[in-house]
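Hey, can you fold this one?
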Amino acid sequence: TASRDVRKCTGHSTGIRAVTATEPEVVMLAAAARQKLDQGRLHARAGEHLAAVAEFKEAYALYEQLGRPWDQARALRMSAVAQGFLARRDEAFSCARTALELARASGGKAGEAVGLRNLAALHGFYGESERALELHQRASTILRTLDDLPGLASSTIDTANVLLRLRRHDEARTEYEQALEIYSVFPDHAGLAAAHQGLGVVCRRASENEKAVGQFELALEQYRLAGDQRGEARTLNNLGVCCRAQGQRDSAQALDEQALAIQQKIDDDAGVARSLWGLSRSLRRPGSLFRSLSLAWKAAGLDEANRPPHEKVQRGFLGALRTTRTRWLEREADR
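Sure. Predicted structure:
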């Protein structure tokens, strides 16, 4: 089954093979494989998912030639995500399942946990949160058995994020707090940031606005220490949401503008859309309504363009927004 699945998503046969190349050839092949993965990532970030899949296929073939099943699995996991954005659900899951088998074969229980987490992420990508939750919990059980506390903390955050999507807020809060307990022993800026960010969302949804702001400020500090500009900008957006909830529209606008500058700098189109939505909401007041509507229209277009095919929103919504904007322009022209 593994061989059939991997041929389906990569065009190559599978198998763990002994390396027959000389040492200089091995070094050259490994460098070429890494380059293919890097090129695939660049294509994926640019939204060029077909080109990304081609690069990941070549990386997989090179790692297969080298007899490196762990790296083969890594190439397959990346390919699975790109296949998802191409609306190739069957191919995406074939890649993810084969990656799990290869990771389990080469890394034992630790490899199985990695494979389960990636398969869970793919189910989450398709909105299948219950199945994603089950797989994340299985991975956490394995990591707990292995006493892999850093891995367990990361897996716990993944579990909490799914619970948050399912609006099981009390359970999500417990998971985030457990992750923070682990990170108090094994500090990690990125992990701490994610846990504080998640707790901030839980508090905000529970109308605990002051607590939410505190958590987001802690997340912001950790994202900056980690050098994660994408996370930093998203946290600024969340702080903007809290300010709007308190009626502080000018402060919210300033935070979203700060986030927008970062997102434009790093070419984070999804983040740009999020900031534009925030600015649109902050500007819903006399004298700024047209600008608010224009920003919402631009945000909707960006949001739609960056969603995977299975998440595309109704075109009617964009059409209605466009019509409203056009009518506003016509009314202003008549004055």
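Residues 193 and 222 are 5 Å apart (CA to CA). Let me know if you want another pass with a different chain boundary.
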